[in-house]
Amino acid sequence: MNPYTIRNFWVPADPSDNRQWAPMEASDYRRFAPTVLAVAVKDILPVELNPWQRVSAEASDFRRWIPTAASDFLPVELNSKKSSATPSVGLKMVAGSAYLPKDNPEKPEGDDAHFVSLEAQTIGVADGVGGWCKQGIDAGKYARDLMKNSRVAAESEPNGAVNPKRVMQEAYSNTKAPGSSTACIITLSGNALQAANVGDSGFIVVRDGKVVYQSPVQQHYFNCPYQLGNSKDDPSLAQELQVAVQKGDIVVAGTDGVFDNLHGFEIEEVIKSSSNKGDKPDYMACTIANLALYNSFDRYAADTPFARKSREAGHSHKGGKVDDITVIVAWIQ
């Protein structure tokens, strides 16, 4: 069964209130487009439901998906406590995201989670470790709680001076759900990105159409990343990263569903094409996510990043890796 065939999904019954959802039927996933899950709107959190909506245009190939307009329906504004965090002086970050969960009736929200806080100039991605399902545990719940708590912690940092490792530690301490998850939290501070990373989620920086930085991976062994939660790892093991950035740089953060299926040069090509068309960050994120999805279905390609890593570890995997896919694209302005 195709892991992305959608049998039951949801669209907003009332565009003014996305808490009201109405079921629709779908016989062909190629007729649907991923909606924008995080937009550059203050105090808006990503939608945590199945991100699909019918579009009128027909498509014979799912690579031709197009994101629907964010104005079609936006997440409800949460009545969260305002913080004193303020954007970095000088450069600023504008971001959008896309999420493509695997189709699983028992876990419709998938295992990935993320957040975008323009207020705190901070973004984060997490990937719940799916192996917990053997024990009846939904690790996606841990990842979602971790990202919610990370956003709260980031927006509580004083005077916009967000410390990603401190944010990760506080979120880790406040996340009580069973399971475990990778995590990468990135903030713009002055003229540099500050990041804390645990596991194989991560980010790249693209400048003038070329990847100039890619965050390292932390793993105990092949396909077993470091992870927060009910594991032996904790935020003290997080890699603290600092990357100088400049106006015009593009940051692409994602879970391993992205970086296991896309090489840097493939992401470069998407960014070049999208930039030439004037696409916004959320559209770029959707395009990258769709390409990662396409590669994940390719059973014969021998040269995906995951296939390369598999060979290096003494295995014989070919093709892409079917997984949840989370992408955040952030412009440095």
Q: Can you walk through the features of this model?
A:
The chain is an alpha+beta fold. It has 6 helices and 17 strands. It has helices at residues 139-154, 164-174, 256-259, 264-277, 281-297, 305-312, and strands spanning 8-12, 21-25, 32-34, 52-54, 93-100, 112-117, 122-128, 180-189, 192-198, 202-207, 210-214, 219-221, 224-225, 228-229, 239-244, 250-254, 325-332. The radius of gyration is 18 Å and the shape is globular. The termini are far apart. Mean pLDDT is 78; it is low at 1-88.
Topology:
Elements (H helix, E strand, L loop, with lengths): L7 E5 L8 E5 L6 E3 L17 E3 L38 E8 L11 E6 L4 E7 L10 H16 L9 H11 L5 E10 L2 E7 L3 E6 L2 E5 L4 E3 L2 E2 L2 E2 L9 E6 L5 E5 L1 H4 L4 H14 L3 H17 L7 H8 L12 E8 L1
Antiparallel strand pairs: 1-2, 3-4, 5-17, 6-7, 7-8, 8-9, 8-14, 9-15, 10-11, 10-16, 12-13, 16-17
Concise synopsis of the structure shown:
With 333 residues, the protein is α+β, with helices and mostly antiparallel strands. The chain contains 6 helices and 17 strands.
